[in-house]
Design a protein that fits this description.
Strand content: under 5%
Radius of gyration: 19 Å
Low-confidence stretches: 6-19, 70-78
Mean pLDDT: 81
Order of helices and strands: HHHHHHH
Number of strands: 0
Helix content: 55-70%
Largest sheet: none
Number of domains: 1
Number of helices: 7
Shape: globular
């Protein structure tokens, strides 16, 4: 596919099981720890590069993902500072990674979603810790509720894609996009303009939200292509 490699999640690509595994609880614990490190590495790159144009595609390249499946455009990474390229996954991944099973935790969409929502939640936490702006409890609840719904619907969409239900995935992504719009509306509250911390919070959180929206729209487009191709194959 053009943006994200969904084909593998249906059992036709690089995500195929290589052999039948017999893992115990300790094996899976180590596996999950490794996937958490991948999310942490994405977060490190995201925080360093999110001010650059095309940073999602640049980060995809540094993470070792297939850039052809990440964006319709060719990857342009010449403007990435050299010090960030050392975080390239090809240099840091364990040699045994290729023998790990496929789970949804390894999918780029899962890693990006988990990483960006971590940044969003951290921004909210930091704003509350500074106590330089008074927010109504209802606003705080709505913000947290929209964040939770947006994240879980992206993950539900990824699960639907994994099962080959592309129309269902689009429905979940549309719900997530609606929740993102609701969060953007909350950031328009003039209470955030009362302090420099509030203004910085709005700037940082909008950057994350716009990236999530871009990712979701890319996936929607790819899902529509899959549905169209499936219909043509039936003719």
């Amino acid at each position: 596919m053009s943006n994200f490699d969904f084909e593998g999640t249906s059992g036709n690509g690089d995500w195929d099981e290589r052999s039948e595994l017999f893992w115990g609880e300790e094996d899976w614990r180590l596996y999950l720890n490794q996937q958490n490190r991948e999310i942490a590495r994405f977060i490190t790159l995201y925080r360093k590069l999110n001010q650059f144009p095309n940073h999602l595609d640049d980060i995809a390249k540094l993470m070792g993902w297939d850039v052809i499946n990440w964006s319709n455009q060719d990857w342009i990474g010449e403007d990435i500072p050299d010090q960030y390229t050392e975080l390239n996954s090809h240099e840091n991944n364990d040699e045994n990674d290729d023998f790990d099973p496929y789970t949804i935790h390894r999918h780029p969409v899962f890693i990006v979603t988990s990483g960006i929502f971590h940044c969003l939640k951290k921004e909210v936490e930091l704003l509350f810790q500074r106590r330089t702006i008074h927010l109504e409890s209802k606003m705080v609840w709505n913000l947290s509720n929209h964040l939770q719904k947006s994240e879980i619907n992206i993950l539900h969409a990824l699960q639907a894609i994994d099962m080959g239900d592309f129309a269902l995935a689009i429905c979940h992504l549309k719900i997530s996009l609606s929740e993102i719009n609701d969060i953007l509306n909350i950031t328009c509250n003039n209470k955030f303009d009362q302090s420099s911390d509030g203004e910085k919070f709005v700037t940082d959180i909008r950057l994350c939200l716009f990236d999530l929206r871009e990712m979701a729209l890319r996936i929607v487009d790819d899902c529509r292509v899959e549905i169209k191709n499936f219909g043509q194959n039936l003719d």
